[in-house]
Amino acid sequence: MTEWDIKKLQILRTLSERGTVTATAGALLMTPSAVSQQLANLAKQVGVPLLEAQGRRVRLTGAAHLVLRHADAVFAQLECADAELAGYVRGEAGEVRIGAFSTAVPALVVPAVRQLREEAPGLEVRVREAEAAEAYELLSGGDVDLALSLAAHAPTARDPKFTRVPLLADPLDVALPEDHRLAGRRSVRLAELSGEAWIFGGSGPWSQITTAACEAAGFVPEQAHSAAGWTAILAMVSAGMGVALVPRMAASTADGVVRVSIGGDQPRRHVVAAVRKGAESRPALARVIEALKEAAHRE
Question: What PROSITE patterns does the database record attribute to this sequence (predicted)?
Fold first, then answer.
């Protein structure tokens, strides 16, 4: 297979544009003898004559014009590569894989992706829904580049494997049946619900968050029903089967359910982004983190 030398092709292309060896040498800051030598070497590489004498000047052969037709395509592709690399350096190109828990996808990830589509259309973001703890397993295993999780279920800030970026302190509200005795209030204290039947998951982050919030208010919640999805939880609240804590970031609503703010020391869940230590310097990843911060700020 013929070896193609980009520099020599550029000299041939310039000769085609300028017409003489002297003009080519001036344009490329070379000597005329160096131009002639490089073109002679190119002819040896491709195995066909590229120049022929025409009086005191030279002209390109048919083979040279054929080579240049392909060279133009090569140079165009190299220009594209240069442009894409420049975009990569600015964080406007590349691929970033995100692992995120369910409520973070519509509230944070989707707005960030919409913003990036406008500002950096060459940057591709791939999203994978995962439980808060699973997101870190995916990050550690190299299956995602960024994990959106809850601080309470993430490795500590001292973990040498990850860099954590705080995004959002998401307030928790209480979901009540619309005919509940406290449904008309603007806010309630969590302790006022100590005798209620509670609905939350049997395990996992939301179970721990609900239990910790209630215990901080001075009581242990009585779990009447177990569910993990917001659709199921709110359907049971609507039916009067119990009450539940709901993160404000979760946009889920249901007929017959009223959300009431928790007064006093309102419980919150802290959302963090994490990357493998050192990866935060990648331009594309840094660009995604900034977009997530902006989405969190708008929440």
Answer: HTH_LYSR
Residue in 165, 153, 35, 53 with CA at minimum distance from that of residue 98: 165
Question: In 3-state terms, what secondary structure has residue 137?
Answer: helix
**Buried/exposed 150-163: b ≥16 CB within 10 Å, e otherwise:** bbebbeeeeeeebb
- Contacts by 68-77, CB closer than 8 A, 24 or more apart: 68/9, 68/12, 68/13, 68/16, 71/9, 71/12, 71/13, 72/13, 74/4, 74/6, 74/9, 75/9, 75/10, 75/13
Rounded to an integer, what distance in angstroms lies between the CA atom of residue 185 and that of residue 202?
Answer: 29
Strands 244-247, 122-129: pairing is: unpaired
Residue 116: count of CB within 10 angstroms of its CB: 23
Residue range 3-50, pLDDT digits in tens: 678 888 888 888 888 888 888 888 888 898 898 898 888 888 888 888
Note the pTM of the prediction, 2 decimals. Answer: 0.66
Render pLDDT for 145-168 as a digit per residue (tens, 0 to 9).
999 988 876 666 667 688 899 999
